[in-house]
Amino acid sequence: MQINEFLIEDSTKYQSLKKVYYLIYEHGPISKVDIQMMTNLKHTTLVRIIDELLSHHFIFESGLGISSGGRPPVLYEIVHNRGYLFGIDLSRTHTTIALLDLKLSIIDKFSFPMTKTHSPEIVIEKMINTVKKHMQIHKLKIDDLIGIGIGSVGPLERKQGMILNPDSFPSDGWSHVPIVPLLEKEFTVKVLLENGANTAAFGENKHLSVKGQDILYCISGVGLRCGMLVNGQAVQNKTGVASSFGHMIVDIGGRKCICGRKGCLLAYTSLESMKKQINEHIAAGGNSVLSQSENLTFEHLIHAIKLGDEIVESVIMDSAYYYGIGVANMINFMHPDHVLFNGPLIYDYPPYYEKIVKTAKKYMFNTHENAIFFSKGALKEDAVPIGAAALLFNSFFSER
Ligand SMILES: [Zn+2]
Fold this sequence. Notes:
The protein contains 14 helices and 15 strands.
């Protein structure tokens, strides 16, 4: 039996097999005694299930545990290269296609920037070609492929697997894109679509780098996105949108936002808003190493700060302050255990991250500042594709 057949099996016969397999996936290396304690399966039934999983090479004996008097127990782990997944990160700035094994280690990945020419047709064609190319390079057959998880910018229509009408894509045409059916048609495997902020949160949680089960995950790239896990599960709002976080009002009657309203967080924190402010300072005769430009990137901003550019520094730090207030509002609403941050400035300009956390702590309501754990995402830019693959893999087990 192939792993892809096993995972899509729905019959009762396979339910306990899949249950035991999942426990070994989650907790391995693990002994029979420990599995039995978690499942209440009869010993003989468990032995039969383990034998069957071994015979299909879905699991293997990975060593011996600590003896509690008698013979040391045999430990089991899943065979991590018994099948493969693809995780895709589709954002406004780039698309990344990653090939992963069952332990969610990235075997290979390919990224390309999103430009004015990257219409849905072109991007999906590139995705398909990359998946095919990776499969060829790593000599994988279609039976080895379990599925494809996509972490995308929302809003989404999950049932139909469609990206609806996200804002700020550089290319036209990103409206009602049926990405899931298109990929399913090409590869005849399960394809899952979720917003990238949620997949990133899920990826970090699977990576065991997070504290607790209630997670707030904030991405500051071109815009702002935030994902949430409650009890370890992605909070799936109806529209699949993660960007509405950016339209939280932080200053009534404040700066104009791209949505047409005033005082949204995004109007203080997006790359576009920072560029606008920097350009205004320069136009007013301010002294900057940058010249007025439409094409400033995060790299330009970080480079300018390193050269001692005070205008850029003050704009970025001002933005961190507003961002911190937005995060405090989210904390006051959600009471997470752990808040994680991801984005170019988070990783490449430490004072930005520190200011956000300091401000968030200052405005948290009635919460001891050590009660919530803050950190940068450990998986960095791989969080979205790893989490997308992880969510897909989990979907084979969570539906029953
Ligand atoms: Zn807005």
